[in-house]
């Protein structure tokens, strides 16, 4: 059930929007950058749900392995820099041994598991891969983001489907603008065979018909546009975290909260493995 | 996929966690296309710290499978005579040469195409365009 929902509203969607999504993800967030820059030389870590790998090159003095469920996004990461260490894997079934890594990050990923039990399980799974005393930095989208363009805020539903509008591909753009207009509107009617006294009425009628054709055309174009928009809108499932909830989930997962805060419409926690 | 990554990959199948054969995965040399990237810079201190964190037996096993028989069975130690372990600044020339070789193997060598399998369940994972895929098919997930 939960897994099917994640398959349909998360995994499938990220593959469909991968290249467009990747174009929008290039700016590293400051607190994540700071966390990575403070890892000692030669630390070994993982980035769970690394997307296009925007955090994999921040600190050249650590060895970081990025994994993501979306092969589309992992290919984007590999194309951006083929020195990135990336692999395709499920964040709940990470192909690493336990107690292995010095640190982990998982940025804007845990909110994609669709039940609280699974989110706690996912955090627990990440913690299981790091050594005792090691730290994980976890970000989840916040419910409290009044000033953002989405306008989510306290009191709203926390389990939401968030639209992603794909920009039209070049092919689609061409087909809609190059398509010959279905009818060319004439500028004046042909009156050669119309008796003089009927001409006024004929012209009035012609005007009415032309106007109707024009309206029909506009309507059709609007409908086409709407259909394209619908086809290009993909919905991703998110659980929007409310203040304090991520800390609770990290504690339920067996971790110790070392720090927490809010950045870029997300709540974050630095959680230590006991 | 860099050689070093093989030291951090096990079988994704949950049931294999109960076996000691889910790590390292088995690499078939004849089915793997190996490439070298000489642009990866040598940083002795970085590598010394990495070596502290690797499973040496797994490195030796995978290297053999990929056709490199030259590694010693025990992890090389880089303790300088003054007892200062793991500081790159006082390595002997011989030690630096050993480290340089390991740099070439662990960080400059990668598998571009190929496959790896679990020694326990024999499930095969593919490596395409340098990217290993460890997702499981539905019947194993
Ligand atoms: C909002 S993006 C964040 C990507 C990246 N961490 C960043 O900060 O740019 C969410 C990512 O989580 C990945 N993801 C979702 N569910 C996952 C799962 N079960 N296992 C691994 N990755 C998952 C998606 O494929 C996507 O790349
Ligand atoms: Zn197995
Ligand atoms: Zn490549």
From TrEMBL, chain A:
What is the protein name given in its UniProt record? Methyltransferase type 11 domain-containing protein
Q: Which GO terms describe its molecular function?
A: S-adenosylmethionine-dependent methyltransferase activity; tRNA (5-carboxymethyluridine(34)-5-O)-methyltransferase activity; tRNA binding
Provide the GO biological process annotations: regulation of translational elongation; tRNA methylation; tRNA wobble uridine modification
Alphabetized UniProt keyword annotations: Methyltransferase, Transferase
The Methyltransferase type domain sits at 46-136
- GO CC term, one of those recorded: nucleus
What's the short name of a Pfam family annotated to this entry?
Answer: Methyltransf_11
Query: InterPro entries recorded for this chain?
Result: AlkB_tRNA_MeTrf/Diox, Methyltransf_11, SAM-dependent_MTases_sf
Q: Which organism is it from?
A: Tetrapisispora phaffii (strain ATCC 24235 / CBS 4417 / NBRC 1672 / NRRL Y-8282 / UCD 70-5) (Yeast)
TrEMBL record, chain B:
Q: State if S-adenosyl-L-methionine is listed as a keyword.
A: no
Pfam families per the record? Trm112p (PF03966)
Residues making up the signal peptide according to the UniProt record? none
- Tell me the keywords, alphabetical order: Cytoplasm, Nucleus
Cellular location(s): Cytoplasm; Nucleus
Q: Which InterPro entries match?
A: Trm112 (IPR039127), Trm112-like (IPR005651)
Q: Name one GO cellular component term.
A: tRNA (m2G10) methyltransferase complex
Q: What is its main location?
A: cytoplasm
Q: Does the keyword Cell cycle apply?
A: no
> Any idea which GO molecular function terms this record carries?
protein heterodimerization activity; protein methyltransferase activity; rRNA (guanine) methyltransferase activity; tRNA (guanine(10)-N2)-methyltransferase activity
- Which SUPFAM superfamilies does the entry mention? Trm112p-like
Biological process, per Gene Ontology: maturation of LSU-rRNA; maturation of SSU-rRNA; rRNA (guanine-N7)-methylation; tRNA methylation; tRNA wobble uridine modification
Write out the similarity annotation. Answer: Belongs to the TRM112 family.
Q: What is this protein called?
A: Multifunctional methyltransferase subunit trm112
Write the gene name.
TPHA0M02070
